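call fold(seq) -> tokens
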Amino acid sequence: MTVSAHALDRLRAALDRGDYAAGARLPPERELAGILGVGRGTLRKALDLLEREGRIRRHVGQGTFVTARRLDASLRLDAPPTPADVMETRMIVEPAIAAAAAIRARAPDLDKLKALAASDVGDDWRAWETLDNAFHTGLAAASGNPLLAGLLDTLHDMRKRDEWGRLRRRTLTPEREKLYRAQHAAVLDAVARRDPAEAAAAMRRHIAAVQAAMIDGVEPEAGAA
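ret:
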């Protein structure tokens, strides 16, 4: 067995045992390579394979996270969810995530979220979608609740469908992106102040604005952030 294959087997075994729960962040590459006794190049090959298998997801500036594989496997749907279904579920789940993050977020979590909130991708809707996902995923990781993080992962997977992309491309104007960025900042401010009630309220305002734009076609109100 090659060194790379051995590292891959050990990582798979750790995931299967639940050493790293769904939604959990893996140790940094340098630390993980030391744990496995391999070089970082060998580790990256193993992580590449795990990512292709859907066992992990990697976000630049955030780290490597365990995907909610078991949750996805147990989800049974009678019909494909529509964007309206996704937004309704987000309105239920994401305020709870923001509130939990306000209670449990650590300093490194806040630093990463601040960097994401300050990022500017211009008018590229695909780049915005990636940045938006990273911010919401970062909040879920900061919540410290792997089930909430897993639910959000499932919702993000549904946002990769063509119908969602068409809606996003058609409705994401520079004005709306500016509003969404301000709303991200408002959520983060409440999280940093350890105010779970306001974090949840700020997230509800944000999801409502996205929902209005994508589902109802209502222009966001000035000052809604």
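The first strand starts at residue 56 and ends at 59.
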